[in-house]
Amino acid sequence: MFPVLPVQTPGSVRPDEALTRLFQVLFPVQTDGIDYAAVFDNLAQFYTNPLDLNRATHDELAATYLLTERQINSLISYRTAYGDLLAVAELQAVPEFDVGTIQRLRPFATIRTGTLTADLPAPTDNYLMLRYERVLEEQKGFSPATPDSKGKLPLRYLGSPGQWYGRFRQSRPGVYSVGVTMEQDPGEAFRWNPDGRQYGIDYVSFHAQIQNRGRWRNVIVGDFQQQVGQGLVFSAGFSLGKNAETILTVRRPTLGARPYTSLTEYGYLRGLSATYALLPNLDITLLAARNRRDGNVITGATTADEDVVSSFGTSGLHQTPTDLLDLRSVLETNLGGHLHFHRNGLQIGLSVLQTAFDKTLKKRDQTYNQYEFMGKQNLVAGLHGSHAWRSMNLFGEVAYSSGSVVNSGGIGAVGGVLASLGRRVDVALLARHYDRNFHSFYANAFGEASKTSNETGVYGGVKYSIYRRLTLSGFVDWFRFPWWKYLIDAPSDGFDYLLSAQYSPDRQTHFALIFHDEHKEKNRPGGLPSGSKLTPKEVVNTVRRSLTLTAEWTPAPGLTLRSRLQAGLYGYTSSSTSSQGFAVVQDATYERGRLSLSGRLAYFNTDDYDSRQYVYERDVLYAFSFPAYADQGFRHYLLARYQVNQHLDVWFRYARTDLLNQPDIGSGLDLISAPHKTDLTVQGRWRF
């Protein structure tokens, strides 16, 4: 009945390989303001558990970033008319689905029939994973400390140069999940010191989750995130920003509470989240959380001799005595909820979150910080909605924040539409406005800046499939920042656009050409420090351009070659000179039976760090690598994966950077007194 594709069976396609290819498609060029590690981990967790095409909601299908609005609505209509699908291959009978789309979706999809209960057999995701990695050369922070002339020892890291990582996960999609993640970064000491808020391993994350138990849709104890609306109140790492996928990543899906398993040591909630079905189409979620956050605490900074937090730490590194002063120094309490109505493509939701700190937050007294949050408490409430109708999806959210001081009240709003104008053309339009005093600590809505505040903008994207082998796409985005920003001593504006062409003459060959042009305003280099109350710096225009050409082909079964040439420049339009750079990259991947080998050889040449080239690299499972190639040199790596048996997989990765124009590499305590840096990673996973 379906001759092209066989029935999907668990393990027939490796999801980690398919995920790597998807990530290369989504981020062929580097984009500012995106936490790539968090995005990658969320996508990895989402794709590890195959999506049941018979039960997946509109937003769950949209979160794959593989299906257009027309395809999603067509699949839902097909299920309504004909009942459950019998196999993934049956997608060939669904209008708007083509063989290419089905092939891309297959590694992440499955078919289950019947009612999902704890007793129903379902794919499981049960494993224990251990990883060790380190830099082979000696870095300054790990070198012997010799007293200076006054007998004072120089600063050094407290721990060993190796990084340890462990993860345990036992889950059954749609039923339950239990997991623990642990990490010890290089230079962090293993010690038990409750008075200093150290409890052995530096970072431990855990969760226990049950789903679909009667009216209890979802209950999580431990670490979690909420993905709600367009990210003005809650956003859980599915914010992909502006990239080469000009349509599908604009709208945020509403997925509710999800276990947090990333190694990013901030941006999550630790406590309890419970979702209960008041009615078949009306859910309520309540959450309570208490987190310890790293913060720079200034003792007795106010007239009342109170402690003040000037900034939060986001690196997650606790390698030196100075780092330990900020370790978990701020107690944060969150109380919130989400009321969600969903029926026949219509969603309406109300979100509320109150955040309280045990110390007053007050950033440095600089002009650009004038509208930053100040105080101990912040309340943010948002109303979001979306409506999927035929080949169109309207979506939006508006939120208001109210803090404990006058400057904490502000409005954030975002709205847009995705539409398929026939089978060949898809468009996206989005407008946003975030007041300079809109404060939402767990927001990450669509925008140019990394923070959801002090921005107004309009985005338009289009994708045109000339025929099934050639696709043209692009976007243009205009944005304005009504108030000063760091290194921008005036209100500023800018715009950027991207043009992309994708050509696949056959299933074994693919070409991509991407041009990105970005214009922003920034302080002219030199002069007084940014934010000076006496003489603000002159603000001038800057330009960043990049051009990327990629070719991928399969010359033989199991062997894939990928060539990449990318170049870019960065400069001030008021100057006749600019920083320029390029990178030439050759990748090869070979898979046969239980063995998978991947390698790269790259040459790069940049004038300085301003023209650095970012190129995504393959890494071991659940690890992420997006390094910056700067100066002049070579970069190569080898990644090997071997499946010992049905339970054990092992990975080995060797990566090295050699600079040709520098006597050393790195800076500060990471300085290596040699022009090369070598990274070694070993990982094992036991599935049971």
Gap between N and C termini, in Å? 35 Å
* Structural class label: mainly beta
Classify the helix fraction into a percent range. Answer: under 10%
Number of helices: 6
CA-based shape: globular
- Rg, rounded, reads 25 Å
Low-confidence stretches: 1-13, 116-121
- Note the beta-strand portion: over 45%
In this structure, how is the largest beta sheet organized?
24 strands, antiparallel, barrel
**Number of E-state strands:** 33
- Give the rounded overall mean pLDDT: 89
How would you describe the overall organization of this protein?
The radius of gyration is 25 Å and the shape is globular. The model is unreliable at 1-13 and 116-121 (pLDDT under 50). It has six helices and 33 strands. With 688 residues, it is mainly beta. The chain has a 24-stranded antiparallel barrel. Strands 1-2 form a two-stranded parallel ribbon. Helix content is 8%, strand content 48%. It starts with 14 loop residues before the first helix and ends with a strand.
